[in-house]
């Protein structure tokens, strides 16, 4: 496999710029040729606490800053088309989290390369990305089906017309290639609807266009929402939008029924 050009930028906790002291708390990977941008940030804040003192660190503010970067990349991912776009984003960071100037890197599999960069340059456990959290019940079944050669894991699918890459953690075939993507929607309605609009468009294009002799594809969104009245209201709006575009949506309470159906229907490609 030929490598693609990519760029990575370290996310650093730098509480006092005048002292030039910083610790790496995350990494961003941009691969324009794969239409990919993603971030991994540290789950804990132990190294940051050592820099300023355990009693001086505001863990809530630091975690919020990490999530803000992840959300920005998810919502505005179509704005990142070149190294200059990532550089411009790095230059806008004004709080205790700074981004280093992007550096070149060879990319073979963007999500795995991002995990590798995190392991090498940050270390420890990474936060599960906000928009795409692993769902244990879902993950267990698809890992089992993968071992049985009845499912695929970690696909990058090109969306017709748009030409951009969509990361699909799970896929199975039952006459149609079903692309299963967990999506944790924001508790902010504008952000949630923006993510839903993108998925609705991508799902619609995947179903209506075939490429390079490939068979029919269907996007299935496993929808995760905040457990609150606000979350329920957002869930109703998101579900209605996805339904309008004929994109299947699996509510969190129906995951058990969904995985049981997948186990019955999935067969080797």
Description of the structure:
There is one protein chain. The chain is an alpha+beta fold. The protein has two domains: 4-121, no CATH class; 136-265, 3-Layer(aba) Sandwich (Trna Endonuclease, Chain: A, domain 1), CATH 3.40.1350. The protein is built from eight helices and ten strands. The chain has helices spanning 46-52, 59-75, 83-92, 110-121, 136-147, 189-208, 229-244, 255-265; strands spanning 4-13, 23-31, 36-41, 97-99, 103-107, 152-158, 165-173, 177-184, 217-224, 248-251. The strands form two sheets. Strands 1, 2, 3, 4 and 5 form a five-stranded antiparallel β-sheet that branches. Helix 5 packs parallel to helix 8 and helix 6 runs parallel beside helix 7.
List the helices and strands and how they pair.
Blueprint (H helix, E strand, L loop, with lengths): L3 E10 L9 E9 L4 E6 L4 H7 L6 H17 L7 H10 L4 E3 L3 E5 L2 H12 L14 H12 L4 E7 L6 E9 L3 E8 L4 H20 L8 E8 L4 H16 L3 E4 L3 H11 L4
Parallel strand pairs: 8-9, 9-10
Antiparallel strand pairs: 1-2, 1-4, 1-5, 2-3, 6-7, 7-8
Helix pairs in contact: 5-8, 6-7
């Amino acid at each position: 496999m030929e490598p693609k050009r990519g760029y990575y930028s370290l996310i650093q906790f730098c509480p006092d710029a005048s002292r030039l002291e910083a610790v790496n708390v995350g990494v961003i990977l941009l691969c324009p040729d794969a239409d990919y941008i993603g971030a991994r940030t540290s789950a804990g804040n132990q190294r940051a606490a050592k820099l300023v003192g355990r009693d001086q660190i505001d863990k809530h503010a630091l975690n919020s800053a990490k999530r803000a970067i992840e959300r920005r990349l998810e919502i505005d991912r179509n704005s990142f088309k070149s190294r200059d776009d990532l550089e411009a984003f790095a230059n806008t960071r004004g709080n205790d989290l700074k981004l280093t100037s992007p550096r070149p890197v060879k990319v073979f599999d963007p999500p795995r390369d991002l995990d590798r960069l995190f392991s090498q340059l940050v270390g420890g456990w990474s936060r599960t990305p906000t928009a795409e959290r692993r769902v244990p019940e879902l993950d267990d079944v698809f890992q089992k089906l993968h071992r049985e050669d009845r499912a695929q894991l970690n696909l990058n699918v090109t969306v017709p017309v748009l030409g951009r890459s969509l990361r699909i953690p799970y896929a199975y075939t039952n006459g149609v290639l079903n692309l299963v993507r967990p999506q944790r929607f924001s508790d902010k309605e504008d952000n949630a609807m923006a993510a839903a609009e993108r998925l609705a468009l991508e799902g619609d294009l995947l179903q209506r266009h075939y490429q390079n002799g490939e068979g029919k594809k269907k996007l299935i969104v496993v929808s995760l929402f905040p457990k609150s009245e606000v979350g329920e209201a957002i869930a109703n709006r998101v579900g209605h939008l996805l339904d309008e575009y004929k994109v299947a949506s699996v509510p969190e309470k129906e995951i058990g029924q969904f995985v049981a159906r997948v186990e019955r229907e999935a067969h080797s490609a």
